[in-house]
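User: I'm writing a tutorial on reading structure tokens. Could you give me a worked example: one chain, its sequence, then its tokens, then a sentence or two explaining what the tokens reveal?
Assistant: Sure. Here is the example chain.
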Amino acid sequence: MRKRIAIPLLFFIILVTPSYLYAADFKIGVIDLQRIVDESEAGKKASADLNILAKSKQSLIEEKGKTIERLKSDLEKQLSVLSEETKKSKNEELEKLWREYQRLLQDSDAELRKKDTELKKMIIREIFEIAEKFGVEEGYTLVVDKGFILYSNKDVDITDKVIKKYNDSKSSSKKQ
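And here are its predicted structure tokens:
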């Protein structure tokens, strides 16, 4: 199956590839986008901000969980002395709190995923701009993400340079 797709794809690429790509001045740069997100100052700050939000959500969740456990324990202790109506009422209250707890877990998880996605999209957009600018300034014909490449020589990896350029751009924008 792979051969059926790969051979026509390779043939197509060879046919549509402009001849200037075969010239001696063809310069390729490879970046590791995930590494830039993880190691850049903006990426580290975004990760720290996300961790702070996660910890605040976690403490709220733990507090709610402890409240439910305490009420459940109290109910179990009083089970023999409570009337059927009171037992039913307490169980309904406990079930309501449990549903609220489950909803809090889901909402917190969704909020964290949304925030993570927003931060990464913003950072990746900025990285694309920096990589494009860097590519033009340094005369690269092509800059690609390492995630799409099976093999590349380490000499074409410009990740460190793009991280430095990205960090410099973020620090210079803070000074202004």
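What the tokens reveal: Helices lie at 2-16, 33-39, 41-78, 84-138, 159-175. The mean pLDDT is 86.
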